């Protein structure tokens, strides 16, 4: 069994036993490795210790249950391996900065990374700051309310949106994650920035783009490692991807979406932007 296969199976085991005690000794024994070797291999490939990974997965599972169920917080705590609501609440607030009840009340919509997606990232190949093996995602209709402007003045457009939103908040936004829609037609570059909203019924101060349901190739871009290299990397993937995907247009315009979630932290090391390229099968 390869190291990556062992790690994949251990990650799946962890996800399936989050309500039970989990130690690296237990997992190493289950997969027939010495505890020392397995812990070192896991940390090297995953980028964190088993204990840290278990904590992160338990808290992510808690986020999903808070968002998608009405279960009491004590039940969620027990389901995620905590022995009391107090210890769970302390860990949750330390990690997210809000209590579980505040998180639920805010209506966040967490997106958990699957084990397959994690393994894909571990085995991926960087081109500058862009991983060349994107994940294929599907999104329903996406409605982005915000401010539009010159594609070469993106910073000014974001500033205009933030000023507008401070005065007139978008009450029907789906989350605080940012979206940047970039459109290219002929020699014209246009950008539209804002939030995803539940409907186009917003204040007239905002412009709305309604994008149809689509498949996207989602690329993780490590900003500090080569943000400017993303176009070549994505064009390379579109030209020779093994599944026969080609770019999908919006009307006559080429477009892409930049998605900013909690992983984005400006130009700091480790800061990530997702770039979504709309795709369809070649006819």
Descriptive keywords:
alpha+beta; Arc Repressor Mutant, subunit A; 9-stranded antiparallel sheet; two-stranded antiparallel sheet; 11 strands; 27% strand
CATH topology assignment of the largest domain:
Multidrug-efflux Transporter 1 Regulator Bmrr, Chain A
The biggest sheet, with number of strands, parallel, antiparallel or mixed sense and barrel status, is: 9 strands, antiparallel
Taking pLDDT < 50 over at least 5 consecutive residues as the criterion, the unreliable ranges are none
Which descriptor suits the 3D outline? globular
- The radius of gyration computed from the alpha-carbon positions, rounded to a whole number of angstroms, is 21 Å
Assign the CATH class of the largest domain: Alpha Beta
Q: How much helix, percentage-wise, in residues?
A: 25-40%
In CATH, the homologous superfamily of the largest domain goes by the name: Regulatory factor, effector binding domain
Order of helices and strands: HHHHHHHHEEEEHEEEEHEEE
- What gap, in angstroms, lies between the N and C termini? 39 Å
Percentage of residues in strands:
25-35%
CATH architecture annotation name of the largest domain: Alpha-Beta Barrel
Mean pLDDT across every amino acid position: 87
